[in-house]
Structures are given as C-alpha cells and as structure tokens.
Specification:
By secondary structure, the protein is mostly helical. 50% of the residues lie in helices and 7% in strands. It has a three-stranded antiparallel beta sheet, covered by helices on one side. The longest helix is centred in the first third of the chain and has 20 residues. One of its GO terms (molecular function) is TBP-class protein binding.
Length: 165
C-alpha cells in the first residue's frame, strides 16, 4: 500500500471519513434520548478542523438544537445510525497505518526545517535551494519510498538497494 502525500486528495478524503466515523460513534455512545452530541466534543478530537467542516458532516445525520444550557446536534428520526461493524468497514486499517506513517514523517520533515515541498518531484531550480542532507530526508519520506517501491515492482523504476536509509 502506498503512503499518501500530505494534503493530497486521498488524505483529505480519509480525514473526512474519519470525522464522519467519530460523529457516528459519538451518537452511538450517547445515553440521552433523543441521541445528541455537542460540537465541542468533536473539536477536542479534531482541533485543527474548521467548525464549518464539522457542521457540514453533522448536517447529513443531525439537526441543530439551541437550548438555554447548551447547543447540541440531535440525531434525525429518519437517519439510520450505522452499526459498529458497518462503521469499521468505512476505513481500512491499512490506510490508518499509512496515514499515521505520513503524519509522523510530515512532522519530522517540519522539525528538520521543511515547509511544504515533501514530494521528490522538484523542478531543477527548486532543488538547488536545499542541502544534500535535506534532500536525502525528502527521499526517505514514506510516500516517496513506497511509491518508488511499488513502481519498481511494476517495472517502471529501478530501486537503489544501497546508500541512504
């Protein structure tokens, strides 16, 4: 399985699905009748996500209800909440591992001083701005190594079996 590139479409779709799964699980574990959740419960798990994105996912399954003590989202009567088995089928465990590998490597590259260019497909002008050690770190990023490995299996690339890493 190929590790996705940070901020790619695959990563964005995974994050969207992960948010939806979290919303379903919060509703499943809600003890109140009708089932309700608060947006603050979601924001604790997804602090970087915009509230508008969270509301967009909530609108598919719940209605917003403003009360005196708190504002909450109440599960709609016409919405069938998926079972835990159905929720588990929405995301493959392999992609969760690939996502975790991607986020860990992304943080390591940020700590090493990289901003946004993590992919090894650089223009010649851009590549000259980086030191060779940092280029090696980019080449060792899991999204580059898994893509190169899968390409070598298909016969598109030749793999270097010695050197960095």
């Amino acid at each position: 399985m190929e590790v996705p590139i940070p901020q790619s479409k695959r990563v964005n779709l995974f994050q969207r699905d992960l948010l939806q799964i979290h919303i379903y699980r919060l509703f499943l574990h809600s003890n109140e009748i009708p089932r309700r959740i608060r947006i603050d419960d979601i924001k604790r798990v997804f602090p970087r996500l915009a509230e508008s994105s969270i509301r967009k996912r909530l609108k598919t399954s719940a209605n917003f209800r403003r009360t005196d003590d708190c504002n909450s989202w109440i599960l709609r009567d016409d919405f069938r909440l998926p079972t835990e088995d159905e929720i588990c089928e929405l995301i493959k465990p392999e992609f969760c591992c690939a996502y975790a590998s991607m986020t860990a490597a992304e943080q390591r590259l940020k700590d090493a001083g990289f901003c946004e260019k993590y992919n090894m497909n650089f223009d010649d002008d851009e590549q000259s701005n980086y030191s060779p050690e940092l280029n090696d770190e980019i080449l060792q990023a899991p999204w580059n190594t898994t893509r190169a490995y899968l390409g070598a299996i298909k016969g598109k690339y030749l793999m270097q079996v010695f050197g960095i890493g």
